[in-house]
Structures are given as structure tokens and as C-alpha cells.
């Protein structure tokens, strides 16, 4: 009788390494995009909650956003793409939506879409 074979074959080892490498590539491409989105969201929240901005003009708010964009080195979205929208009554919102396209392999890209709406002047 032959003893049962134990362990992993070289082919199975290569497939496992390839899957782990692909997963690592996905993580390395996705994490910076989500970190950038966290910076965008934080900057818009801070500008919207600023006590001086409830009645500020679009130009003033975009100027404040521009400072955050410069400090945080935000990519994929410009401060001009953040819109000031009127809601019901006196309510105003800062809103944005954008797509971030990141190359994965050769001609395959990852596409991320983000959108958010933040009420102006609601914070402390």
C-alpha cells in the first residue's frame, strides 16, 4: 500500500501565492482611494459645521475648502465640484459626487463612486 500523500503540490502553492498577491494588489489600490474620500468628507464636514459659514457665500465656502484641499492633498475632486444647494426653507447643503478611477492591471481599472450631502451650520 502506498501512503497517502500529504502537503501542497507546487501548482497549488503557485495558485495560492497568485491569489494572495492579487488580493494584496486590490488592497494597495483601494485603500488610498478610501483614505482620500475620508479626507474629502472630513473637509466638507468641517466647512459645513464652521460657525462662521451658515450665511457665507459660495465663494467663501469654496475658499475654505481650497485650504483643506491644499493641506490634506486631496485628489480626484476639486473644491469647485462641491456645490452649495438650497433645501427646504433656509436649509443649505454642501454636496458632491465624483468618480475615482484607479488602474489595476494593464487596461483594467477600478471605478469608485462617492456622493455625500452635508447640512451647513448644523454643528457646534
Topology:
Blueprint: H1 10-49, H2 58-72, E1 83-86, E2 92-105, E3 108-119
Antiparallel strand pairs: 1-2, 2-3
Helix pairs in contact: 1-2
TL;DR?
With 124 residues, this protein is of the alpha+beta class.
Structure, explained:
- This protein is α+β, with helices and mostly antiparallel strands.
- Helices cover 44% and strands 24% of the residues.
- The chain has two helices and three strands.
- It has a three-stranded antiparallel sheet, covered by helices on one side.
- A hairpin with a 2-residue loop joins β2 and β3.
- It starts with 9 loop residues before the first helix and ends in a 5-residue tail after the last strand.
Keywords:
about 120 residues; alpha+beta; 3-stranded antiparallel beta sheet; 2 helices
How many DSSP E strands?
Answer: 3
Strand order of the largest sheet: 1-2-3
Mean pLDDT over the residues: 89
Outline the low-pLDDT stretches.
none
Order of helices and strands: HHEEE
- Our measurement of the CA-to-CA distance between the termini, rounded to an integer number of angstroms, reads 78 Å
Q: Globular, elongated, flat, extended or rod-shaped: what is the shape? A: elongated
Assign the structural class, choosing from mainly alpha, mainly beta, alpha/beta, alpha+beta, or little secondary structure: alpha+beta
Q: Give helix % range.
A: 40-55%
**Mind summarizing the main beta sheet?**
3 strands, antiparallel
Share of β-strand residues = 15-25%
Radius of gyration: 23 Å
Per DSSP, the total helix count is 2
Amino acid at each position: 500500500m502506498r501512503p497517502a500523500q500529504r502537503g501542497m503540490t507546487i501548482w497549488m502553492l503557485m495558485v495560492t501565492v497568485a491569489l494572495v498577491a492579487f488580493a494584496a494588489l486590490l488592497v494597495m489600490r483601494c485603500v488610498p482611494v478610501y483614505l482620500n474620500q475620508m479626507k474629502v468628507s472630513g473637509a466638507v464636514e468641517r466647512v459645513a459645521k464652521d460657525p462662521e459659514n451658515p450665511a457665507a457665500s459660495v465663494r467663501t465656502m469654496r475658499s475654505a475648502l481650497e485650504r483643506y484641499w491644499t493641506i490634506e492633498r486631496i485628489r480626484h475632486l476639486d473644491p469647485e465640484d462641491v456645490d452649495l444647494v438650497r433645501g427646504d426653507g433656509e436649509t443649505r447643503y454642501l454636496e458632491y459626487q465624483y468618480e475615482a478611477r484607479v488602474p489595476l492591471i494593464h487596461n483594467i481599472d477600478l471605478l469608485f463612486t462617492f456622493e455625500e450631502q452635508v447640512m451647513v451650520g448644523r454643528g457646534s
